[in-house]
Write a structure and sequence with these properties.
Blueprint (H helix, E strand, L loop, with lengths): L35 H39 L1 E6 L7 H14 L3 E6 L2 H6 L2 H4 L12 E7 L7 H11 L3 E4 L2 H43 L1 H9 L4 H40 L4 H10 L5 H34 L1
Helix pairs in contact: 1-6, 1-8, 1-10, 2-5, 6-10, 8-10
């Protein structure tokens, strides 16, 4: 066998060049989204948003009803003629009606008969009573013309001069009481909203601290390798912003559904005694476009409060570590 020369030998196999393939990257959220604490926070935010939305809607309904009451009462005034011995009530009623109808700014004048005036006392005295011997006053309901502003003090003076025993009531006391009631309801609603926001802030603070304690090792490693506080806080902020939006959407959506069902039921029972009484007190239970917009605004507000609270909590905690 002849020995092959060096040039005739086959080339030795060479290893294939290493491809510049990137190493696999394993990415995971700094704060697990589907943790037990995250689901609990969503439930808390949903409950708080639901209660806050109900409070806002109730305040709006009471405020609207009070405004309607004030408008209705302000458009009417009452003339009362007290009976007295030797006084002709019918003549006094006719004179007061003529004075009121001739006064500028008055739209309609309706005198109540003796039987109608006595019937107004039945809710307090009961029916079947003989009120002939009681000094029941005669009432005249006067409606103010639309857009008019009559001089009520002058009308009061004219009635006192021309009609003996006549007094004019512009229901200012009732209007002031209704205005005070509406203001009290609004103040109570704002107080409840502030308390709910405070409770949400505390819940988010505890949830953020719990999440940081659970991921303490990861946060310390990131901190040691040079991760900025803003980067870590941003991860928590985005996480809790999504949780706040989810919980707020659930709670706000449930509140909108409740108000929509209440408005539907009020229309369903319209015409019944209970439905008419409820409508007289609270209106149609419809909060309107402005009410639904307020609920949506609260959903966004709760989400922003959740995110900002989380970021502030993380920043304060990391500053203590530094």
């Amino acid at each position: 066998m002849t020995e092959l020369s060096r040039d005739d030998r086959p080339p030795l196999p060479t290893a294939p060049p290493l491809a510049a393939t990137p190493l696999p990257r394993f990415e995971s959220a700094l704060v697990p989204r589907n943790s037990i604490s995250g689901r609990a926070l969503v439930a808390v935010v949903a409950i708080m948003t639901f209660l806050a939305s109900l409070t806002t809607g109730a305040v709006m309904l009471v405020s609207q009803a009070a405004s309607e009451w004030q408008a209705d009462v302000a458009r009417e005034i009452t003339i009362q003629i007290l009976p007295a011995s030797g006084r002709d009530l019918d003549a006094g009623v006719d004179k007061a009606v003529s004075v009121a109808r001739a006064f500028p700014g008055i739209g309609d004048v309706r005198p109540y008969s003796k039987e109608e005036s006595s019937k107004l006392l039945e809710p307090w005295l009961g029916s079947g009573l003989s009120l002939a011997e009681l000094p029941v006053p005669r009432l005249i309901v006067v409606k103010i013309a639309s857009g008019a502003a009559p001089d009520l003090p002058q009308l009061r003076r004219m009635l006192a001069e021309q009609v003996p025993g006549a007094t004019l009531d512009d229901h200012r006391g009732w209007i002031d009481r209704m205005r005070a009631m509406a203001g009290t309801a609004v103040a109570a609603g704002i107080t409840v909203l502030l308390l709910m926001v405070a409770a949400t802030v505390l819940s988010v603070t505890f949830a953020t601290r719990g999440a940081m304690a659970t991921n303490k090792t990861v946060i310390e490693v990131l901190h040691l390798v040079g991760a900025k506080n803003g980067f870590i806080a941003g991860n928590f902020q985005r996480h809790f912003l999504l949780l706040g939006l989810e919980g707020g959407a659930i709670g706000g959506g449930a509140a909108m559904l409740v108000f929509a069902l209440a408005a539907l039921l009020s229309r369903w029972f319209a015409g019944t005694a209970g439905g008419d009484q409820t409508a007289a007190l609270f209106g149609s239970f419809s909060i309107g476009i402005s009410g639904y917009a307020a609920v949506l605004g609260q959903v966004v507000l709760i989400a922003v409060v959740t995110a900002v609270t989380s970021r502030q909590t993380v920043n304060r905690t990391l500053e203590m570590i530094d």
